Amino acid sequence: MMTTRLRSVVDDLTINLAFYTRLPLACGLIEGSELARASWAAPFAGAIVGLMGAMAYWLARAVELPPWPAAALAVAATLMLTGCLHEDGLADMADALGGTSRERKLEIMRDSQLGTYGASALIASLVLRISALASLTTPASAAIALIIAHVAGRAAIPGFMRLIPPARSEGLSAGAGPAPRASAAVAAMVGIVAVMAGLPWRCALLALAAAAAALFVIARLAVKHFGGQTGDVLGAVEQGVEIAVLLGAATQMQGTA
User: Fold this and answer.
1) What are the Cα distances from residue 102, in Å, to 114, 213, 231?
2) pTM for the whole thing?
């Protein structure tokens, strides 16, 4: 029984790593329903992405690079590991907001071309993340912030999928369906505990409040403009929460100034 349960846990983590990263894991074609069921492990996949970014930051600082280029390299490392999966979603959602009808907006989200809104959203995301990391001048604080931010960013996705219905009748998000209640609850709890345990309490509360605000805004935009969530909207969810946590972590420097 224990061996079967452990194998199930490993399988769920492998599914999430295969989906959220470009790691060469042999798990075959991932079905949407399978990903939804295993979504409780999404935060742990995020922890590995954050750890890779933290290692890049530590190495950059070890060779005496200043905080800004070190932070840029750390973010670049996470982009390489994920294949810009969530950044692509953020850009597509931002571009789609410029559409004139719901149908046109959904069509724009499927277009691979990058528009002005999408480019602006990407620039804002990169600048906010890099500048927040650069303010955390010790490798330890930057590493903790990166790991927590990536954990929390993916922890929010299962609950969002459960609360906001799919905008389309087809596609990965629609095929996955809502994440099981238990999976969404476990993922959310892991994200909240990571933020509260890894940051000073004031920073943690600010980070959680900012994350909740980001989720609220994205949910309102998704329902109003698209009629629900899509895979691209979920990418924007990850980006919004990741940014919120990093900005919350950055406030600890203001508290010590």
Assistant:
1) 19, 24, 16
2) 0.93
